[in-house]
Amino acid sequence: HTLVVHYKNLPASAPLFTLMHHQDSQAHRNTGNNAARLVKGIPFRDLNSEATGEQQDE
């Protein structure tokens, strides 16, 4: 199975993001987050980053 994110301004043969089934769930989660960012029109986060960008109070 493959997870693919397309964008209307790109050709169908050139998806924005493509992930394979063997990639970890964090990579799938990051891709979903970036797909939401695409819809909202805000910059993407690094797909390879493990950080959520949220800071916790200590």
Structural description of this entry:
28% of the residues lie in helices and 14% in strands. The model is unreliable at 54-58 (pLDDT under 50). It has a domain at 2-40. It has one helix at 25-40, and strands at residues 2-5, 17-20. It has a two-stranded antiparallel ribbon with strand order 1-2. It has one helix and two strands, in the order ββα. With 58 residues, the chain is α+β, with helices and mostly antiparallel strands. The radius of gyration is 13 Å and the shape is flat. This is Propanediol dehydratase. It comes from Klebsiella michiganensis.
Task: Name the descriptors.
single chain, 58 residues, alpha+beta, two-stranded antiparallel ribbon, flat, disordered C terminus
Secondary-structure element string: EEH
Strand order of the largest sheet: 1-2
Percent of residues in β-strands: 5-15%
How many strands, which pairing sense, and closed or not: the largest β-sheet?
Answer: 2 strands, antiparallel
Protein name: Propanediol dehydratase
Blueprint of the fold:
Layout: E1 2-5, E2 17-20, H1 25-40
Antiparallel strand pairs: 1-2
Organism: Klebsiella michiganensis
Protein name: Propanediol dehydratase
InterPro entries: B12-dep_deHydtase_bsu (IPR010254), Dehydtase/Dehydtase_re (IPR003208)
Describe the structure concisely for a colleague.
This protein has about 60 residues and is an alpha+beta fold. About 30% of the residues lie in helices and about 15% in strands. The chain is flat, with a radius of gyration of 13 Å.
